[in-house]
């Protein structure tokens, strides 16, 4: 039996691709497509809006049916409503919403005692491999290597630095014993802006329609090591989210990650 899928932020750039790939895979029964109140396309077929053809599910500004799993790539202000719905209806949740407040992160953790949740700043398989690698690279190279993180996204992205850039920094800090966020330097400006030893530089680029590029530079006198991930389109994120959703159905309540889905230690 196919898992019943609810897509939150269904008319957005990510939500649309999730609907398309879910339809193409044939592995899900889409039962809900949710958007914010007042969206101009409320009441229209969500499949047609996404470019997947009719699916007989109308875009709605509320949760109309309980599914097995919800996938949410909406804005942070919608996260609380999604969590409340999932808890009330015993629905598993995959969330890729970035820019959450500390209070919302705490709510996710509390909710994971009642339902299974995957929260990830990036659902790409390749990016999650990079998450796993950067701490190991930093440890092997040692303290003499300066670390800079550069992330590039489209002009419409609201939060900066990206959630993925912060995850990279957090993993490096955890592996090397640095304070996070205390060791992070967000950009540089001024006549006396020399880098401080032990800090991690964070730089955000916003231009055009860049899907997502993350680079971590490890540099010392004499050599530079750069690890990089480039997303060529949103399907890498949408496909990863659907892979996570299928994996999550039937799991015990807990807060999982994409590393769990991929079997990454």
What does this structure look like?
The protein has helices at 13-25, 46-50, 79-89, 102-111, 125-141, 163-176, 235-248, 258-262, and strands at 4-8, 29-34, 59-60, 69-72, 92-95, 116-119, 146-153, 184-186, 200-206, 212-220, 223-231, 254-256. With 265 residues, the protein is of the alpha/beta class. It folds into 2 domains: 4-119 and 234-262, NAD(P)-binding Rossmann-like Domain (Rossmann fold), CATH 3.40.50.720; 125-231, Dihydrodipicolinate Reductase, domain 2 (2-Layer Sandwich). The strands form 2 sheets. It has a 7-stranded parallel sheet with strand order 3-2-1-4-5-6-12, sandwiched between helices. A 5-stranded mixed sheet has the order 8-9-7-10-11, with helices on one face. β10 and β11 form a beta hairpin. α1 (13-25) crosses α7 (235-248) and α5 (125-141) runs parallel beside α6. The longest helix is centred in the middle third of the chain and has 17 residues, at 125-141.
Looking at CATH, the homologous superfamily of the largest domain is NAD(P)-binding Rossmann-like Domain
The largest pleated sheet is described as: 7 strands, parallel
The strand line-up of the biggest sheet is 3-2-1-4-5-6-12
CATH A-level architecture of the largest domain: 3-Layer(aba) Sandwich
Number of folding domains? Answer: 2
Helix content: 25-40%
CATH topology of the largest domain: Rossmann fold
Unreliable segments (pLDDT under 50, ≥5 consecutive)? none
